[in-house]
Amino acid sequence: MPGSGLAAAWEITARLPSTRVVMLTISRDDSHVFAALRAGAAGYLLKDTETERLPQSLKDVMAGEAALPVTLVTRLVEEFRDRAPRRRALMPSREGEPRLTSREWEVLELMRRKMTTAQIARTLVVSPATVRSHVAAILRKLRVPDRDAAVRLLDNPEA
């Protein structure tokens, strides 16, 4: 496909929200799977999928289900399972205190992985200015002075 399939998915789902996008790709890279799902894809099928299975996968998507190879589903579950305990530990317990959005949690996790603003922007398919806005919101909500302090709080919520 000329251009970016990911950019096309974003554009299609933004303009036609009821359209079900299925990515057909050779990439098994987790960051590509996650980016496609963030872009609104309802399916992420690998080009080496057995051709007999493709029609049923597409019918499933049209019926409102997701189409993902089992190996990718397992990695997706592991990605969220890994972060869930830290999320709960950092969530404020008192009513009225600010809470991080799901996107802010994503940015915080990528900061934990020592990614730069530009790397986070590419991973999340957003602009660096958007990442900077999320980082500023994270620092403000967690009441910490910098990225390192936010990551330390993520890694050690009792501190």
Task: Describe it.
- There is one protein chain.
- This protein has 159 residues and is mainly alpha-helical.
- It folds into 2 domains: 5-74, 3-Layer(aba) Sandwich (Rossmann fold), CATH 3.40.50; 95-155, Orthogonal Bundle (Arc Repressor Mutant, subunit A).
- 58% of the residues lie in helices and 7% in strands.
- It has 8 helices and 2 strands, in the order H-E-H-E-H-H-H-H-H-H.
- The protein has helices spanning 5-15, 30-38, 54-62, 70-90, 102-112, 117-124, 128-142, 147-155; strands at 21-25, 41-46.
- It has a two-stranded parallel sheet.
- It is elongated, with a radius of gyration of 18 Å.
Sheet having the most strands: 2 strands, parallel
User: Given this structure, which CATH class of the largest domain is correct?
Assistant: Alpha Beta
Helix content: 55-70%
Q: What is the H/E string?
A: HEHEHHHHHH
Rg, Å, rounded: 18 Å
Parts with pLDDT < 50 across at least 5 consecutive residues: none
So, the CATH homologous superfamily of the largest domain? Answer: Response regulator
Strand content: 5-15%
Spatially, the strands of the biggest sheet line up as: 1-2
Sheet/helix structural class: mainly alpha
Number of helices: 8
Domains, number: 2
CATH architecture annotation of the largest domain = 3-Layer(aba) Sandwich
Distance between the termini: 49 Å
Which whole number gives the mean pLDDT?
A: 82
Topology, number of strands: 2
Shape: elongated
In the CATH scheme, what's the topology name of the largest domain? Rossmann fold
